[in-house]
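Lab notebook, page 48
Experiment: co-folding of the full assembly
Goal: obtain a model of how the components sit together before planning crosslinking
Operator: M.T.
Materials (sequences as entered):
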Amino acid sequence: MGAKHFGARVTRIEDPALLAGRGRFVDDIKLPGVLSACFVRSPHAHAKIRGCDSRAALVIPGVHAVITAEDLPEPMRSQSLPMLLPNPALGTVPRQFVLAREEVSYVGQPVAVVVADTRYIAEDAAAALIVQYDVLPAVSDCRGAAEQGAVRVHSDIESNVASTFRLAYGDADGAFAAAAHVFIEGLWQHRGGGMALETRAVLANHDPASDALTVWSGTQTPHIGRRVLADLLGRDLQSIRLIAPDVGGGFGPKAVFYPEEAAIPAVALKLGRPVKWIEDRREHFLSATQERDQYWEVAIAVDSQGKILGLRGRMLHDTGAFVPWGIVMPYIAASTVPGPYVVPAYQLDTSVVLTNKVPTTPVRGAGRPQAVFAMERLLDRVAHELTIDRAEVRRRNLIQPEQMPYEVGLLFRDGKPLIYDSGDYPRGQQEAVALADYETFRARQKAALEQGRLIGIGIANYVEGTGLGPFEGVTVRVLPSGKVAVATGATSQGQGTRTMLSQIVADQVGCGIDDIVTTTGDTAAISQGVGSFASRQAVNAGSSALVAGQAVRKQLVALAARTLSVVESDIELENAQAISRRGNKPSVSFADLARLAQGIPGVSLPAGQAAGIEHTTYYTPAQASYCSGTHIVEVQVDAMTGGVKILKYSVAHDAGRIINPLIVEGQVQGGVAHGIGNALLEWMQYDANAQPLTTSFADYMLPMATDVPTCSIAHVETVNPLNPIGVKGAGEGGTIPAPAAIISAIEDALSPFDVHFAEMPLTPERIVAALRAAGAYERLFAA
Amino acid sequence: MGKQPTRMNVNGKSYARVVDARLTLADFLRHEINLTGTHLGCEHGVCGACTVLVDGRSTRSCLMFAVQANGCEVTTVEGLASGGKLSVLQQAFIDNHGLQCGFCTPGMLMTLTELLRENPQPSEQEVREALTGNLCRCTGYAGIVAAVLDAAARLRSADGKKETR
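Observation: model returned without errors.
Model output:
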């Protein structure tokens, strides 16, 4: 069977319903008798809860209940939310309860839930609820939080340092002692959000007749969510069905299990009515997890030619008030720094520090944009100080294809040695250089400057660990209708997962995309599942789709051969039919074969025939995969306003074999947009008392259509030897190097003024401040 | 809470309801008459996911009360396809990968339907400027911009054919 669909620009099966307004997101699901919930959240970053007076709330007509921690069922009442990613480097872990019991430790932490006939009434009642607090001092800045005698983030935890760990190999101190040059950078990177356009949402319904609890949640990880919920409710796993229907964007924060996902089912059970909660945008700013706040002090040691000899430093990671995903992000950041370069010696000491802010968990990129920013800013510094071209200094240090597989010397977050199995980094950079017309840029820059325009170019490389385990499964089943069912624990928040899996299965089974019926994100569809994060679904679920598809193909061929009385090698599968190549080419449809495989009641199946035509595979990767790429961006900066316009954005990336270029290009382009937001716009700000200051899209700016150019994209496909379909993952690579490249370009554009940037986001205000400090305006006005 | 009778025509069908004065048009569409294609992304008038046409003009349905639409003609995303066939713009979104999660898409389509009606030959810059009232977190806008330019060309070519006939 040739690959008709794998590799083709297949338009998405998801699209027609979504375009017609027939998508089904959580809030589109209508259950009779449904009640609306509103959470009452802490207005303080740190406080003791003294009491809660719900009398005024409860007398409002249409209010059904006010639920506080004490009203929750056991074991949820006394059991905290689980830490799903344990790590020996984690110290005493603060425990978050579904509803806060005695102390609140960030603004937005859920304290109570109000249930009413409508959301309007529920919000009225939430406003009428009186919660009394004794306000405690709060920790807003992670830098002071780690010091001795600092204010405590949690009253019952002595140290705000949740973890410290060192990642190292080689002789870093020796490398620095022998180096021709050493350069040091102090970097800061902002806290931002995933900001999916659909906010979080939970709907729960308990059917007393079957004792089945059905929960719809806009989650990236329904199987994990069901497991946690079963534990918190003390229910058997099989009595809970968790469905992620259409989900309006994920980007990481929806991979977390949230208190609201436990509280809403508990309330539905308690009231005997379906209950729905739809987060509003302000709540999303307050209570959906965020990422990226890190402070770095890093130094690079190079020889006289700019070859890297070593890298060492310290990094401080602000984890917020809790650690629901452990130390995953700082760990990934620390192990991503060497990236595509030969770094002979490395040592990074990381401290993970609690603050009274909403917890951080992975947001598209997950620690990697920060690491790439650190490495690439250092290389720009080397280029600048040694007067070597920026692309050239990188070229001199890239790992060569003949060095593959390349063992970095660290362990990755999957606990396995960090080994790049494949890739051609010099070729990737060369392709980006060609796309960007990099070689002629200096002439263009000079010409622009003569016209009074400040343009600059920036470049950044990355390697991204992707495709993480433990597994993802796919069931392929031929239905009596002749359709082919594909079910998976993988989930989609817009990535085109259903189309991607359908392409793989259609090729294997011998049918059209239209013959495939997919189910994603439903715990009833497949017994085990993990979900979407770490650019892992094409690697894991895609591989399972291939193996399950091949198995079903074998079953179809065997049964068709028996049915048509021909040998198996004569059977071809096409258009959901099995056709014999011989004689008058007799055929049998998939529908008939599916029925035959179900047998006749009371009659034994023929020897060798299994029940039904179906197969389930759970692909388990042996280790992480590593994709890579180069971004080159050209910008124009208005020195008077600090405004930045991106003129040209070029991407060369290696995501391994590409299943659907249409979808992969969409992932890259969308990822770049997220990176542009991180570089220039998005900044979740808090005051000194850890009060959030940016809680609307008017204060926290997302990139608009005028901010994001259409990228030129080159696919550098090197086959991943680690999985049967050769893919590496494509979900996050667009975001990871973008801030590094953009900020590099801004600095280059402003090189006449010799300003240096070491932070993101780089807002117009910061650009103007740097120019002012550099005396740029005196020069501009004198000119 | 004050109840008000309100009557409006949505996608060619007349609806009369008695609603709370504070009920937004978006919630009216979604929960009173079950047209859930209109989405709410921010409820403060920035993201544009809730955009519908009110008397032909693109309007934030999260910032308008249902009673303010009394007597109006409202078009939502459900009204764009005709006879089960997607509009040229909707089809161009499929062909150019103009959507990923699809949550912002209904608002995008309404804004762009208005744009193409008023400017059948928009430049890329005009398309981008028209889109500044609609946020998309997934696509990075490239597929959307391409879809609009493609749809505009297809619509002009269809009009051209009609005229020569």
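Interpretation: Strands of chain B lie at 3-10, 13-20, 51-54, 57-60, 73-75.
Next step: discuss with group before ordering constructs.
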